[in-house]
Design a protein that fits this description.
Layout (H helix, E strand, L loop, with lengths): L1 H16 L8 H23 L5 H7 L7 H4 L1 H32 L1
Helix pairs in contact: 1-2
C-alpha cells in the first residue's frame, strides 16, 4: 500500500544520497509526505471540489486524464480519510508542543 511505497522511495533516496542521507529518517520522510498531502488537499478542496456532487463524479468517471480523486466517489472518500489521519498527526504534535511549553513556563 501507500506506506510500503513511501518506505521504498525513502530507501531509494537514502541509497542515492549515500552518507548524505544517513540522517534522513523514515519518520521525517513520512512527516514531509503528510505535509505535502495536506498542501495538495488545500488545492483539491478549494479549487477542484468546489460544487462537487455525486453526479459530477459520475460525469468525470471516464475522463482518464483526471486523477481518481476527481472522478471516483470512493477514491474521494479514501482521500478524505487519509487527510484526516495526516491532520490528526499534526494536531497531536501541536498539542504535545503546547503541553511541553506550558509545563516549562
Amino acid at each position: 500500500g501507500e506506506e510500503a511505497l513511501l518506505r521504498y522511495y525513502h530507501m531509494r533516496l537514502c541509497d542515492l544520497l549515500g552518507h548524505r542521507g544517513a540522517d534522513f529518517s523514515f519518520e521525517a520522510a513520512s512527516r514531509m509526505y503528510d505535509m505535502c498531502l495536506l498542501d495538495y488537499a488545500r488545492i483539491v478542496l478549494s479549487m477542484f471540489w468546489k460544487g462537487i456532487t455525486p453526479e459530477k463524479f459520475a460525469e468525470n468517471c471516464d475522463q482518464h486524464n483526471k486523477a481518481m480523486v476527481y472522478r471516483d466517489f470512493n477514491s474521494a472518500f479514501y482521500f478524505l480519510r487519509r487527510l484526516d489521519r495526516a491532520a490528526t498527526r499534526f494536531e497531536a504534535e501541536l498539542a504535545l508542543a503546547h503541553h511541553q511549553s506550558s509545563t516549562q513556563s
